[in-house]
Amino acid sequence: FFFSSRRRHTRFLPVSWARRCVQETGLEIEYQVKKFKEELQQKEQAFIKKENEIAQIKRSYEDEVVKRERQEEDVRRLQQEIVGMKVVVEISKNMENEANQKTKQIEKELDEVVRDKERILRQIQQGEVNRSQLEGQLQKLQEVHDSTLKELKQTCLLYTS
Length: 161
What we know:
- The protein is mostly helical.
- The protein is built from two helices and no strands.
- It starts with a helix and ends with a helix.
- The mean pLDDT is 80.
């Protein structure tokens, strides 16, 4: 009885210890696997978050590059416009100078016509010259006067528009 009882008791204890050891080891491994999976998920989420941040920074950088290129294009276009405006200003100055010179020339011609007209009128009043001859000269001077005024007006219109 003692021996058989001891045997039963001895047989039961190692089996129970082995089961407990396997169960505890299995639980420990299961806990470590679960913990490792959680850490892996956290690292994966952190990695995805970093990837998204990098993608956002990349998009922001690309947007800045596009913005910079547009600004540079605007600067080039404005520089071309400025050059064009300088050319227009230079042409305008030249046209103004030409208009002033032409105006002075026409004013001189008009002064000559007016002086000739006054001279002829004095000669007519004093009876020094044949009236019909002087009237012909006066008519020619009047035509020159009118055409010169017309040319002056056209010049003014041309250079002011």
